[in-house]
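Below is how a single chain appears once it has passed through the pipeline. First comes the sequence as given, then the structure the pipeline wrote out for it. We keep one example in the README because the format questions we get most often are answered faster by looking than by reading.
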Amino acid sequence: MDPSRYVPSTAFNTRYQTTNTGAPVRNNTSSLTLGPRGPVLLEDYHLIEKLAQFGHERIPERVVHARGAAAKGFFECTRAMGDVTCAKPFEGAGKRTPVAVRFSTVVHSRHSPETLRDPRGFAVKFYTEEGNWDLVGNNFPVFFIRDGIQFPDMVHAFKPNPRTEDQEMWRILDFLSHHPESCHMLTFLLDDVGIPKTYRHMKGAGVHTFRFMAACGKETYVKFHWLPKAGEESLLDDDAVMVGGKDFSHATHDLIKSIDAGNFPEWTLAVQLMDPAMENDLDFDPLDVTKVWPEEQFPMVECGRLVLDQNVDNQFLENEQIAFSPALVVPGIYPSDDKLLQSRLFAYVETQRYRLGANYLMLPINAPRNRYHNNQYDGPGNFMTRSEEVNYYPSRFDPLPDAPPYPVPTRADPAAPRMKQTIEKENNFAQAGERFRAFDAARQERFVERVAGALESERVTPELKAIWVGYFTECDAGLGARLSQKVRMNKL
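Resulting structure:
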């Protein structure tokens, strides 16, 4: 008997209930007892299996991005990009690549309201002919910090207070006061776009700078942007209260119902490209994740569309168990030296091994769609069928060749000194000020009110208020003056 033919699935159901080992169950409503009143007998294997399985149904929740919704569809290239990358999804206009996508909130737990002011995750898994590529981004194009060593502390500050179990603004402002580079991200989070109307009305971004590699070896810096066909729409504060009061899972329900109705969500993929030779000519570091690239210098180049036309079949299997990592790239796409990105390359795969086990990439939603071959498959959860006698490399009995060569980056400087320090061109305030000045008057006022409200939160000290008014004054003198008028600087 070939065990690979009998993987449990809906298509392989019996006409009656069975145990997990396939034995028929003649009574699934009563335990085996001595007499009708009990006691219950331990020999009732079906009872023990049912209770034990129930007690193990949950896996560790994601530390961040626990609340989310997933869907499947395709990416269609609309402009060949072979001059800058040899990546398969971009090799020709009209080419389609299957994808799975997960949207999420960041800070709070699974089943938390989707109307909270919080960044949103926008993660796309491309199933290419040369393996899976994960573009793991957010709805904002920048981030709070620029070094991964700060990430656990940042998340701790944003998570609920370990004593009170409340998310408290004084903790967030205290931590971020040591990171003035966060001002730019706050002009997104505390702006009108801080609460997306639905996932369909949300922009996405790769956030980090990546590298495109052409077949000829040419290297190009690239940033990725998802632009919603439905337009970008958000909920203002009072609207969010109303929507969340009626349905705290409104974004998930909207996604599912839209796809079921044939109203398939769609985004345009646009990229910004930069010659690495010009990175020293800018007044900011193009690898700095707290910065955007000005569009007048680096215009958006539309090159594809993302369409979600299929809901997941099972939320646990394809939403809770889908696993993303920016370390998963394919030939033609590589990470840059961005320090936050470099840290994520390790952290994401490590957390998936903890949550899902060593063989999480064998799960159907995470497995590649192309043929693959290696010796990395033993351990808990291995259900791969392998009959080879040679499970090592190299071998004269199984002379498996290396893959054909493909271009890889060569820009790292091995002579660079080892050090722990911040980047040289921090420029923490200029882009935050430019973004604020681009708001219309009403939008500026709403932003000022939200910042002032945060600074007036319980336990925000006069020192913290002064620091933040000072930071926002550096961003824009008018912004700082308006905050000074609204914030009681000398009172807790």
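The first strand starts at residue 68 and ends at 77.

See the next section for the split statistics.
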